[in-house]
Input
Amino acid sequence: MNFSFAFNLPEVSSVLAVVWFLLVAVLWIGYLVLEGFDYGVAMLIPFLGKNEKERRVIINTIGPVWDGNEVWLLTAGGAMFLAFPAWYATLFSGLYLPLFLVLVGLIIRGVSFEYRSKNPDTKWRSVFDWLAAIGSFLVPLVFGVGFANFIIGLPVVPDPNNPALYVIATDAANVGQVPYFWELFSPFGLLGGIAVVAICLFHGSIYLTLKTKGEVKERAKGFAKLVGLVTIVGGAVFLICQNLFWAPMFLSGLNWILVLVAAVALIGAWLTIGQGKSFTLSAVAILAVALGIFIRMLPTLGFVDAGTRTSLLADGSLLGLNIFSAASQDSTLTIALIAALIMVPIVLAYTIWAYWVFRRPVGVENIPDDAEAVPA
Amino acid sequence: MSAETLARWQFGITTVYHFLFVPITIALSLLVAVLQTLWVKSGNERFLRLTKFYGKLFLINFAMGVVTGIVQEFQFGMNWSEYARFVGDIFGAPLALEALISFFLESVFLGMWIFGWDKLPKKIHLATIWLGAIGTLISSIFILVANSWMQNPTGAAFDKGDTTVENLRAEMTDFAAVLLNPVAAATWTHVIFGAFMTAGALIMGAAGYNLVKLNNENGEVKDVDDFRWATKFGAWVLIVASVGTIFTGHIQGQIITDLQPMKMAAAENLQKSEACAPFEIIPGVGVPCVLSFMATNDPSATVKGIDDLVAEYNEKLAAGEPLDARNQLQVTTAAAKAGIWTEGADPVDFVPPVLPTFWSFRFMMGLGFIGILIGIIVLVGTKGDKIPSGGKGWNAMMLAAPLLPLFASSFGWLVTEIGRQPYLVNGVLSTHAAVSPGVTAIEVGLTLVLYTAIYAVFAVVEVSLMLKYAKAGLPKVVEPEVQTDDDAPLSFAY
Output
C-alpha cells in the first residue's frame, strides 16, 4: 500500500492547507467553547460555594465532562503539529514561558478535581479548591494574551543557522539570547487576557445557572449579570481596537460582521441569563470572536517580519512562514483529513451523549455525605 | 549548562515521570474492565467490590497520567522546534490521531464510568470502562509508532526532490510503512506485556497486603476470600505477562541489533566485535555466548562492538554515505547533505553515553526478574487455602511488587532513548541540531526546576493517596441502580 500521490498540483496543496487551517480553528473553537465554561466554573469554586457541599455542587457540574473538554486542546495542538509543523515549531518554542504557565495551570487544576475529594480535611480541600481556581484562571489568561498577540503580529526571523526554521524574536541578533516575553504584555495583550478570562467566567456562570439548583443557582445568576457587563464592555473595546488598529488582510467585511454577531450574542446572553439559550448565545459569542481572530491569522499565521512588522516583505512577497509554506505534504494532510472527517462526528456524537447522560442539574441534596460516598 | 543539555534533562525527567503512570493506566483499566465484566456476568458481589477498590487506585493514578501527558505533547514544539519542523509531516500524524481517536475515547468514557454508576444501565456502564480502556490501548499504539519511527525512520524520504527552503525536511513516502514499522510491533508488545506485569503486581500487592492483615486480625471471611482471589489473580497476570515480556524483549533485542547496532553495543559496553559474545551480568562476570544469542538468536554469531562501528560510521560519513543503506530517509538525507542541506549537523561522536545505557539495561532485566520471583513466591505462599503469616518482610514485598516492573519499564525506556543518541531520528537528525534555537538556557533551566518541584510535590500526594486507598480495604457496596429521583444523592460525586 502506498498513499503518496502521483500528481502534485499546487491548487490541491493550497486547498488542503486552507481546509486544515479551518479544521485547526474548529478544534480551537471547540476547546474554547467547551473548556471555556469549565474554566469559568472552576474559577468560581471558592467564590460561589459558601460551604463544603455547595463547593462540591459546583465541582460536580463539570466533574464528568472537563477531561473530555480538555482533549479539544490536545487535539488542536496535535493538529497544528500534523498539518503545520513549522507553525507549531515556531509558535510553541517562541511562546516558551507563556506555554509553560498554561501547562502548570492545566496540571494543578486537573489534579485538583480528582484529589480534592480524597481527603475530608478542610485545609486539604481548600488547597485544591484554590489550585483548581488559580489553574483555571491562568490558562485562559495566557491564551487571551497570546491571541491578542496573534492579532498584533508576532515578529519572526529565520534562524541564522537554519533558513528553514523561523524563530520569534525582535531581531536576528536576539535569537537564543533574549526571549520574546515582556513584549507580549502590551496594553492590548493584557486586554486580550482579561477579555478571555471574563468571557470564561460569564460562560461558566451561565452554565452554573443551568446545572445547579437552589442558592448556588441564584448566586450564579447574580454573578453572571455582573460579569456579563464586564464581558460586554471589555469585549467591545477589544473587538473594536482589533479592527481599527490591526485590519485583517482578508475578509475584513466578514470580520466586522463577526464583531456584530459577537456583540449581539453577548447582549442576548446577558438578557436571557437563567435560560438555556443564554448558554448557546455565549457559546456563539466565543465562536464569533475566535473565528474572527483565526481569519486575521491568514495567511501568515499571526506572524510578521521582525524588521518591517508586516506580513509582506519589501519586495512585495509574503513572509516565508505562512499557511502554505508551513503546511505538511499533501498525502499527510489527505490521510489525516479522512481520519478527521470520520472521527470528529463520532467524537461529537458520544460527547453529546455524555452531556445528555449528565443533563440533570446538581443541588446540595444530591451531594452524598463523605462517609456515604462509595468510592468508584 | 547549555539549553540543549537542559532540554535533554527536561525531556528525560518529564517523560520518565509521565511513564510511571502510563503502564498502570493501560493495563489496570483493562483489568478493572475484566473485573467489572465478571461482576456483570456472575452477579457475584466480590467482583463489584474489587472493581471499585482497584477502580479507585486506577483513577488516582490516571489523573497524574493525564496532566503530565499534556506536557509531553507541548514539549516537542517548545524544546525541540527543529525536530518538530523537520519531522512534522510524519511524526505529527500519530500524535494528532492519538488525541483524536484515543484521548477523546478515554476521557469521555472514563468520565461516564466514574460518574455513571447510577445513571446508566449495568451493561452500558460496563461498556464505558471497556471503551475507556481500549482508548488507552489505542493511544499506546500511536505513541509507540511515533517513537519507533525515531528509532527506525521508515516510509520517509528527504524533501522528495524539491529544494526550496521550506522543503528541507523529512516527508512521508509510505504511511503503511510508518504504521507497520517492525520496531513498533516489537516495542508495543514488549511495553504492553510490561504494563500488565506492573498492573498484575499492583493488584497482587494491594490484595496480598490486605489478605495477610485481615487474616491475622480475624477480619471478615468474605473480605479474606475476596483478597485471596485477587492476590492469586494478580500474581497470575504478573507471571503470564512476564513470559510475554521476556519473549518480546528477545525479539526486540534482535531488531535493535539489526537496525541500531550501536545501541546494542552500548547497552553491552562491547568495545570490540566478538563472536560467541558473552553477556556480562555485572562488569567482569560474563556468561559466554549469551549476548550473541540475545542479539541474533544464534549463540555463535558475531556482535559488532563500539570501536568497529565508530570506524565504519566515520568511513561512511567521509564518503557521504548513510549509516544504513537500507533506510530510504538516511540515504536521501546523506545525499542532500552533500548538496544543499547542512543543518542536520552530523554528530562529532557516534557513541551514546555507554554507562547509563549499560546499567539501565541490567536494572531493567534485574528488577523485572525480581518482580517475577515475588509473583512465584506469592503463588506458592497462597497455594490452596494457605495464607502467609505476614510480617514486615511480606509487607515490603507487597509494596515492592508493583514498583519493580514499573521501574524496570523506566530503565527500558532509558536504554531505548539514551541508546539512540547522538540522534533524535536515528542516522538522520542529531539531537544537537534538533533543539529549539530561540530558547535560552535560562528558560529551559527555570522550567526544569519548576517542573521537577511540582512533580515532586504531586508524587508525594499521589503515593500517599495510593497507599491510603490500598490500605482502606474493600468498600461496602450496594447494587447500583439507575436513579430516577432528581433529589436523591448521587451514588458517586467528587
Chain A is about 70% helix and 5% strand. Residues 154 and 334 of chain A are 29 Å apart (CA to CA). The beta strands of chain A are 154-159, 162-168, 303-305.
